[in-house]
Design brief:
The protein is globular and about 30 Å long. It has a 3-stranded antiparallel β-sheet with strand order 1-3-2, covered by helices on one side. It is built from 1 helix and 3 strands, in the order βαββ. With about 70 residues, it is α+β, with helices and mostly antiparallel strands. The N and C termini lie far apart (about 30 Å).
């Protein structure tokens, strides 16, 4: 079975991405994290994206949708 993921942006580290997901009540199993030398790119399973959007109060993401 394949799942569709939407881009959630770039984070400085895996830890920052996981903390962001926790604040937004996203199960870690719904994340797709790709680490590279600049940090990590994060995708969220489309079915797990909240209809009200995400909590981005601390602006730790480097880019992505807001």
């Amino acid at each position: 079975m394949s799942f569709d993921f939407d881009d959630a942006g770039n984070f400085g580290s895996r830890r920052e991405a996981e903390e962001w997901a926790k604040r937004n009540n996203i199960d870690p199993r719904d994340l797709h994290i790709r680490e590279d030398s600049r940090g990590c790119d994060v995708g969220v399973r489309r079915s797990a994206i909240p209809s009200g959007g995400f909590d981005d109060a601390d602006k730790r993401r480097k880019d992505g949708f807001f």
